[in-house]
């Protein structure tokens, strides 16, 4: 599990150093991935959503539960991680839909008491993927 955490931190730092920081004001929205609904109130970027949807039913539900039971960022916005022995999620939480460059009408059940959140990255422990 430590390898997944280290890998996610390395990946995030590489993306940020390459200028792909999601917090940067000069992001071209056309280059951002779309957002897909996985379950009521659970959304993910396209690349993460595709990988999550390929899981078996039990694993899929485990990811949904992991997302729903996460701790929101301390300041109410930013990135947080949720992980267990098999999966790791990097979740972005914002206070407004404009911060994610989306419209509320397109994502009616996205706003929860934990904020407006989307799974940005999804990682699988390969030992679990073979089950």
What would the principal axes of the Cα set say about the shape? globular
Whole-number tally of structural domains: 1
Strand order of the largest sheet: 3-4-6-5
Terminal CA distance reads: 16 Å
Helical coverage, percent range: 25-40%
- Counting helices, strands and paired strands, the structural category is alpha+beta
Number of helices: 4
| Mean pLDDT score | 80
Largest sheet: 4 strands, antiparallel
Rounded radius of gyration (Å): 14 Å
Strand proportion, as a percent range, falls in 25-35%
- Counted beta strands: 6
Low-confidence stretches: 17-28
The H-and-E topology, N to C, reads as HEEHHEEEEH
Briefly, what is this?
The chain is an alpha+beta fold and 131 residues long. It has one domain.
Task: Report on this structure.
The structure is a single chain. With 131 residues, the chain is of the alpha+beta class. It has one domain. 31% of the residues lie in helices and 27% in strands. A hairpin with a 2-residue loop joins strand 1 and strand 2. It is globular, with a radius of gyration of 14 Å.
Give structural attributes.
alpha+beta; four-stranded antiparallel beta sheet; two-stranded antiparallel sheet; globular; 31% helix; 131 residues; 4 helices
Topology, pairings included?
Blueprint: H1 2-17, E1 35-39, E2 42-45, H2 46-53, H3 57-68, E3 78-83, E4 87-94, E5 111-112, E6 115-124, H4 126-129
Antiparallel strand pairs: 1-2, 3-4, 4-6, 5-6
